[in-house]
Amino acid sequence: MEARILLAHVLGWPRTELITRADEMLPASQIAAFHALEKRRLAGEPIAQIIEQREFFGLTFRITPAVLIPRPETELLVELALAAIASIDAPRVLDLGTGSGAIAIAIAHQRPDAQITATDQAPAALALAAWNARHLLPVDRPGGSLNFAMGDWYQALTDPKRFHLIVSNPPYIAAHDPHLTQGDLRFEPRQALTDQADGLSALHTIIAQANTWLLDNGALWLEHGYNQAAATRAQLIAHGFSQVRSERDLAHIERVSGGLKS
């Protein structure tokens, strides 16, 4: 499958044409280009970085080594976010640590009336997110252009307005976790993967300050690690959130937790 992805990328063909045009002879330049990409993949570099794109929630995002590669399990966070604002006209949404912009843009695509602010502390990530927004969203969407702000979590916000919904997929891998030195994670930005501590500090920071930025009955949804649901729920309850619960991804892992501002 990965070989097909790389070859289709080199040729500029849809993958179906690898079958319908299977008898065509390829020039040496394209064969060499394929082998160059094949070598990168054999060295462990993620497919998404090699072809500089990844599909997420039906949209094709540009991806670089400056951002986390969007993953299928994060689509659950988008689904829960959309459910949280389903009955709200022109909802105000905040995406903390937006990276490639995948979460914010997916919500914006599904809810053209949503007014969305997305933050990140990395200039390269914000630039990429803005590029994705320009290429994936219509210029005349009712909710307007996405507002991108640079800074560490809520410190990026300069407007005192509050939000109907806050979402985030923060770094939640513990600093000592061996997975950081394995597979695709070796090639992704470390600051997007780990908090350089126990994996819970970013989650705690976001939860502790969320009430200041949420409207009454506003929702907070957070992606977290496979074994962090109970700790995340405890923090939400400790900070006064109601209807706190965790939802499972397609692998039946408690992947996203959230609640409402009481």
Helices and strands, with pairings:
Elements: H1 2-11, H2 17-20, H3 28-42, H4 47-51, E1 53-56, E2 59-62, H5 75-84, E3 92-96, H6 102-110, E4 115-120, H7 123-136, E5 147-150, E6 163-168, H8 201-213, E7 214-223, H9 229-238, E8 241-248, E9 254-261
Parallel strand pairs: 3-4, 3-6, 4-5, 6-7
Antiparallel strand pairs: 1-2, 7-9, 8-9
Helix pairs in contact: 1-3, 5-6
Question: How would you describe this structure to a colleague?
Answer:
The chain has 2 domains: 2-43, no CATH class; 66-261, Vaccinia Virus protein VP39 (Rossmann fold, 3-Layer(aba) Sandwich), CATH 3.40.50.150. The chain has 9 helices and 9 strands. It is α/β, with parallel strands linked by helices and 262 residues long. A 7-stranded mixed beta sheet has the order 5-4-3-6-7-9-8, with helices on both faces. The protein is globular, with a radius of gyration of 20 Å. Helix 1 packs antiparallel against helix 3 and helix 5 crosses helix 6 (102-110). The mean pLDDT is 95. The protein has helices at 2-11, 17-20, 28-42, 47-51, 75-84, 102-110, 123-136, 201-213, 229-238; strands spanning 53-56, 59-62, 92-96, 115-120, 147-150, 163-168, 214-223, 241-248, 254-261.
